[in-house]
Amino acid sequence: MTKPMKIDFVSDVVCPWCIVGLGALEQALASASDVIDAEIHFHPFELNPNMPPEGQNIGEHVAQKYGATPEQSGKNREMIRERAAEVGFTMNTGKDSRIYNTFDAHRLLHWAGLEGRQSQLKHALFEAYFTHGQNPGDYDVLVAAAEKAGLDPVEARDVLEKGRFEKAVRVAEEAWRGEGVSAVPTIVINDKYLITGGQPAAVFERALRRIAAEG
Length: 215
What we know:
The protein is of the alpha+beta class. The chain has helices at 16-31, 58-66, 70-86, 103-114, 118-131, 139-148, 153-161, 166-178, 201-214, and strands spanning 3-11, 36-44, 56-57, 98-99, 186-189, 193-196. Helix 1 (16-31) runs parallel beside helix 3 and helix 4 (103-114) runs antiparallel to helix 5 (118-131).
C-alpha cells in the first residue's frame, strides 16, 4: 500500500539546478512508486527579481554575482549539461545565453496550478529557456508554453496582460523567504523534511523511502 506524500518544490525557471533536481526527483518518485503516492506543488522563487526585461548575458551576470571567471562558468555549464542529460533533459546554454526576469512566468505557473497543469507548464518553461534559449519573460513565449502544457492560450494571455496573480506570487515568495529559503531548488516534504540542491535520483529515492517508512 502506498503512502501519500506532499512535496513542495521551490524554484525558478532560469535555475539550471532546478531542472536537474526536478528530473532526478521525478525519477526517484517513479522508482519508489511501490511505496509513495506523491504530488509536487511548485512555488515561486526569483533568482534575479531586479533583472530588466532585456535580461543580461549569462557570463557577465555570473561574473558580477558570483565572481566566476569565463573558464569556471564554462566548466560549470558543462557539468550541468551532463547532469541534465542524466535525467533526460537537453541543456543548450552557452557563453552567449542570457538570463531574464521570471516574475510573469511565476504568475502563469500560479494560474496553471489552479488549472491542474502546473507540472506540465513547469517543464514547458524549462524547455523554452534552457533548450531553446527563449525569454521566459516574453508573453508570446509564455503563451506558447501554456498551450504546449495543455492550457488555454487565450486565458494565458489574459492572465499575463491583466497582471493577474501578482499579489499571490509576491505573498508566496515572501512566505518562503520567511521560512529561510535563500537558494533553489529547495524541496520540502510533508511540511517537515528539507532537501536542497540538484541531488542525484538515488539520493532522493533513499530520502523518500526513509520518510515513507517513518510516516
